[in-house]
Amino acid sequence: MANKKKSTGKKAVKTAKKVAKKNPTAFIIILIVLIVAIGAGFAAYYFLVLRNQGGVIPSSSESSSGEVVSSSESGHDHSSSEPSSESEPSSSEESSELESSSESSSNEESSDSESSHKHSESESIVSGAMSINFLELGNYHTGDSVFIKAGDTDILIDAGSIKSSSTTIKNFIDQYCTDGKLEYVIATHAHQDHIAGFVGSNAAPGIFKTYKIGTLIDFALTNSTSALYSDYCSLRESKLESGDIEHHFTAKECVEETGDAKKEYTLAEGITMTILDQRYYYENSSDENNYSVCTLFTQGSNHYLFTGDLEKEGEESLVEKNTLPHVQLFKAGHHGSKTSNTDKLLSVITPEVVCVCCCAGNDEYTKAVDNQFPTQQTIDNVAKYTDQIFVTTVTTDGHTGYESMNGNITFYCATGTAYTVTGSNNSTILKETEWFKHNRTWPTGGK
Description:
The chain is an alpha/beta fold. It has 14 helices and 16 strands. The chain has helices at 2-22, 24-53, 71-74, 91-101, 108-121, 165-173, 192-199, 207-210, 227-242, 251-256, 312-321, 343-349, 376-382, 434-439; strands at residues 130-134, 146-150, 153-157, 181-187, 212-218, 245-250, 264-268, 271-275, 295-299, 302-306, 329-331, 353-360, 389-395, 402-404, 409-413, 420-423. The relative contact order is 0.08.
């Protein structure tokens, strides 16, 4: 059999020589075609078989599991289907890099741990935009209500200022919440200007009657014996029993992660809500404001802080019990009161933007002009860090007259980095408003 193959090979060589002598041009063309065909076949075999066996990443449109990953989720530009130099290494390449960079990595578990650490140090992945809206409440009464849209998740913090405010709040929410459900609701403390809208009235049904609620988080302690608070509790229990409120936890239960309560909730990919710790979840205070639930939202590398009406002592404990970051956004404590917004807190969080929910210059709580919200003391304290201060509403006569200052204030961030602040009336910062020029002064050395 071997001799037959040899004989066949010799015949083929003789035939090739004859063709070469008879028509050298044709022979060269045939030879080139054969070389190209053999080369193409080898290249195809390498890319289709050998290359995938070597652990090369799939194209950018697929993850290693075959799951489609969009460019916005991965944080890279996937305009080309070829793996780029910016692409993450495959799992096998990443594991070998980790083992070579750390002599202490002696098994697969330690390699996975280091891999996770490397991922956490890279750019955060954010799949949803955040829109944080500080609402006007349809009257001259100062109060808080903040509606937050995080990806597809709806969050409401407080529902002041009076029962009829529920209609104004609902009209705003319904522009963005299309399924009739708020995934998270936070009631910071038991004062009217924060919970009246949850209760509402026959003429203006409250938030508890209007929406289904996924998780309600409220204050652990209170001194309140008011009829409003009693109505709040009755409605809350009724809605829990009917299933319209699915879960109810206090801030203390969240911090301690009692039962199904969590300290941190994931709202969307790269967006979290953390219930911060403070001493007045556990200890009585003579000031109801100190019972306020405090929350920190994190979106990518940005942080947004909400402290309700927390007073000086509460702010001190907030700093002591938590590692607070620099924040892009801070909702001014207690509507811009002089008893909140202390330098103990501000010097740690160094805010970039401060939003104040109040009717500026209204004498509802005091006749002393400097102490009307937002107070001169708060402005002096905040001015060390920023002049980006915005206020929802302003008095027109010092009493019951009111109009929009900035109006509904919207802090919007799509990516967890750059953001915008706009008012439904205007986007003028506080120190440039006519009300400020007549009633407050910007401190020397302020931003």
